[in-house]
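=== RUN LOG ===
request id: a7f3
mode: sequence -> structure
chains: 1
length: 390
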Amino acid sequence: MKQEVAIKKAEDLINQLFPSDESEKDSTLLTLARNPLNLNMILRLHRKNLGSGARLPESRADLFRQILDLQLISRPEARGVDMILDNNDEKHRQRVLQKLALSMENTTTIEYKNLLDRMRNFIQELGYPENISAKAKDFLKVLIEKSELILKKDEYYEFAHSLFQSYLIASEVKHSQQENLLYEKWEQNLLYESCIIYTSLLVNPTDFILHFYKESNPRGQILAERCYQELPVKKRENLELLKKEREKYLFSRLEEYLQHGQWREANEETFSLMLIITQRNDEGWLTLENIINFPIQDLYRIDQLWLEYSRGKFGNSVQQRIYQSLGGTKEYNYDVWRSMGERVGWRQGGKWLYYSNYNFSQTAPSGHMPSLGAYFWVWSYFPPVQTCRV
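=== RESULT ===
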């Protein structure tokens, strides 16, 4: 019997992580599950929700919200734990944590006395006039010992995870209408992550995301793309203005380089865009999974720009046609790759060229660009670029 229940739980979890419905193939739930913290939270929620028909969340904001409800409401009630503060529409328990997180801004640790003083002030702000000191101390104790949302680390205290803190900051910013704080301090680590989570708390995040696409600081554009990718796929698809403006700002630098014949700069911007779109800026390199799952419309836009400004000489689709004409498939074949390198000018005199020796000019052989150095083979794994044009 226990084995049957375990199998049923596993099957339900797998079906939600890997939906058979093709319309959900880009679901963010699987992406969330790749993070150990997120996976742990997903398993907790799945165990709680099994049999209720409730679906697992598809955004980090919903995931954190449900986990906080579980730790601050459902689990304490089931165990008969007195959480000190009311469980009402104002969510006083979470509001105190939100206020605490926002007051800490970009610091992750706090001394006990400072923590207790802030708790006392926040509880008083919520309208608890009596026994404030006792309530603050008791509430802090259950947060640490029962809900495990605040942990003791050496002589300091901190949230169970910095992402919890960022979520709470985002929630308090939304509740108290302090969006300007994110505009002013987005470069701070915790607030940077708060911006991303805040995006999915908004009904229509178009203006918020576009603010960062327009930033002169290149890191702002990276943040904008992170915010965009944070949104569930179905929500992104319904934000037509955001999709249109994203394309305008995200690919503007590449178009400018190509327009002025700055081929090397355009080549490097292409790889930079790939890192931004796949959220691999910190790593600085791509995995095969990143390449296989590269957004097809973005791939088409990159190809379209290269084709337009090279008059059909350079581009992903040009490289694909050449590679396939030589008998190339996804299966590695050194003879085909060698022939490909010789055809597009990545090999000369029987040797592969160093990136610094590539011909970044209009006189380069057809298909020479975009050339991505060690990633010269990636286009064989992309879907046929032509299919993007429908």
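=== NOTES ===
Residues 152 and 238 are 44 Å apart (CA to CA).
The chain has four domains: 2-58, 59-201, 203-239, 255-389.
=== END ===
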